[in-house]
Amino acid sequence: MVLDAYILQLGGGAGLSVPSLIAHASPFSKAILLLLLGLSVYSWAVIWNRLRLYAAVERADRAFLGAFRRLQPSADFRLVCEQHPQSLIAKVALAGQRSLEAASGVPETTRREYALRAMDRSATDEVARLERHVGFLGTTGSVSPFIGLLGTVWGVMAAFLNIGAQGSATLVVVAPGIAEALIATVVGLAAAIPAVVAYNHLLGRLREFGNATAQFAGEFLDRRPGGP
Question: Count of domains in the chain?
């Protein structure tokens, strides 16, 4: 590994390597590294899952909007909704249509208000479903550096105890403990940085979904019979 070679160069060829440092680390340091590894693996699983899901929803929304806009205002669009089950906008449209049908005996202005509220509730529920597990990325990004710092402090403490036990502060005595401590910092940052970047990116995509449903609600009501 490049990182191994770099450490060897810094240590003057003392025979240290990342795998050997991890293998000879204390049980507490190994537990810290395993925890960070678990957080990182789960974060990448969430990132991969949400990116695939959001891409599928965006494709379905574009396809549904194209089909919906080609229909006549009075046409039944339920079949189009069924053809795009992953479309967020299609689910919002169905909620609005059901509300209009349920309030058939009330004034038109009230019907539109009911439909708008139903579409808002549907959009909120669907966006919340899409947001599932995304909060874990924010937690990982916030906590991982501190967990890595905990491992670093523990390693530095162990290095100083080793110095006291051996009565020597030479590089041979200090270097392994310090290097072991810094590995926890590196792993903590490696888990946190992708999680924070993905968290901010996914939140932006979720805001776009919310804006798209809000814009579609007005278009849907305008195209229904009785609209302007």
Answer: 1
